[in-house]
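dumping the sequnces here before i forget
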Amino acid sequence: MDFNDTPAEATFREEARAWLRGNVPTATELEGLDPIGQAKLWQKRKYDSGWACIRWPKEYGGRGATTIEQVIWNQEEAKHPNLPGAVFSIGQGMAAPTLMAWAKEEHRRRYLPKLASGEEIWCQLFSEPAGGSDLAALRTRAERDGDEWVLNGQKIWTSGAHYSDYGIIVVRTDPTVPKHKGLSYFFLNMKSPGVETKPIKQLSGDANFNEVYFTDVRIPDDQRLGEVGQGWQVSLTTLMNERAAIGGGSAGGDFKALLRLAQTVTIDDRPAIENPAVRAKLANWHCKRSGLKYTGYRSLSALSRGETPGPENSIGKLVAAPMTQDIASFAMDLMEMSGAVWDEGYSPDAGLFQAMFMAIPGFRIAGGTDEIMANIIAERVLGLPQEPRLDKGIPFNEVPTGAG
Amino acid sequence: MNFEFSEEQNLLREQAHGFLGEHCPMTKVRAVLDGDQPTDRELWAKIAEMGWTATVIPEEFGGLGLSYLELAVIAEELGRAVAPTPFSSSVYLATEALLLAGSTAQKERWLPNLANGTTIGAFAMAEGPGRTTAANLTAAAHNGALHGTKVAVADGDVADIAVVVTKADSGDGASLQLVELGGDGVSINPQRTLDFSRSHARLEFTGAAAEPLGPSGQGWALVNKLFDRAAVLFAWEQIGGAEAALEMAKEYALGRYAFGRPIASYQAIKHKLAHAYVNNTLARSNGYYGAWALSKDAAELPLAAATARVSATQAYYYASKENIQTHGGMGYTWEFDCQFHYRRAKLLSVNIGSETQWRNKLVQALEQSNAA
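..and the predicted 3d for all of it:
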């Protein structure tokens, strides 16, 4: 048992490190560009040198690297903290695997390299006002008209819809059959006539998501992925990759900041960290954080051996998201009355904990709520049965819908 | 990255699992629980025959000279089987104390017999309810004669020797003594315990012959080191127990019907068991880190051990109590096996110091690693 790279991994890591040292964009290079322009500059540079989407096959713009090499690359890239943001993650992380599994060869060769190079940005159009955890209850309709489909309806929670070039979308093509059977999956040009994007103002005050409205939007049948009625199956490819991408996050920085805070502020004139109640909480969170870290290492070891990691990684988001919420809340308690102030110039860590507190309710919901994640562990890992469903086998248009 | 047990270690796990399945089924645990014997001597002899008691003892002292990773694998299986033996006292505490602090002569005298199981060791520290510290110790040895009383000594009534923590007038205020329990001036009185399959005793020493183990006045530092090492192995027993308790709850929930369907299909039960799976996974991964640190004698051992210990204590407590809850009324009966894990989980959680104490140690280690 050790933490070392194999010789081949070590060579690859050194190669990645060396390239990054010489190619990470300087502040001057990024000056004057908007965040998307900055991200595109960095992505194109990686692509031109064969360091973009390295796990993809070469003919689609990748490097043909192994999964463990991808992880090593991610680790090395993450050591450069000020790189431009990840506007491509949905396209590269969710749309691309779906295209690879379901699109025809001509489309893969047309779209995947431009996803890898960052020239085109993709978004994901799945959730609807009436279809969240019960995603397959979605209602956006597509009706066939010759070689095209005509789309009407509304999607919600779409990150980056306003700057995306393409989107992957699942829609209802037959409301007279049971809900999972009446869905079909397409990709579409987000600049098509009839697509309208409206930002959603979140409770944090930010607007990271959109509502997207479709009014008589026409999609060529050629852009369908999978058969008509096979949309749910295609969606599962996307969702599995979504959970892999979102669940992979770490809960590190916030805990270190909390530790610093507990050493800085006082309780009854002594450093807060000396208080037994504070220590108990710190210990509990450290155990979770450490447990996640070494769970990740176990998965990496499986990858390193060329095996598929076990189901243990499915716990990541379910552990990290609620813990982060509790950490943020407790950090503000430690600040006492000042906890209520959210001012970058005044608040400890420039208001990190206040910002986290306001952002985290979204993370507990996005990509599968805590409750859905617990169901996934119970059903797929422990093998427990599903709850009986009242809509099973009933044509979608006869399923009770409630108020909305 | 090679953060996992080797093929040989996994084979050992399978072998241990098979062995305990055959020689330590739940009926054996129940026999000790129901009977008037404090431990299962027959099982102990078989375990010793397998060489498990000799795992990390160097070959020169009659051991197998294997690593702590092998011992962690065995600990997990013993925990899973809720084995009614003094393994943790003898192997993780008494043997470790000798390895840590014993003179060559002491090692030559005791390790071969600890390795082959003919000598059973115990560890005696507490003198009453509440946390033992170097400052509140009263038992003391003068000129090789030990006086004082130790309580809640795990396996104290089956052990042949005990490592006793005593008060010292110098240094950190404590010393370790090695005492033969069959000698004069030792009175052994079994104490009724929470887990009848693991007996405890009150040991009264009235001038018992004692020889110092390690330098006088460094006993407290030795206890801390010893506990850091033992914590990893206790954690692996707890992890094994927690997984067995979850497995038991799952099997019952799948077979038990209420309102026309398996109770395993209700989210109230599913989420409870998913939560236990999450706890167990975190504890296991922390256990890996602890086992790694122990096997390499790494500088991170205090943090890794405390993290593994706290994580495993929490996981086993949760799994053992929610296993009873999942079983409903039948889980509360003597007839069902749920009680074994409930008893053992609590016993293991206080044996080398409470969760509160280990959480405090964990934060101490964090503070030190942050300062370094």
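Residues 220-371 of chain B form a domain with the Butyryl-CoA Dehydrogenase, subunit A; domain 3 fold (CATH 1.20.140.10).
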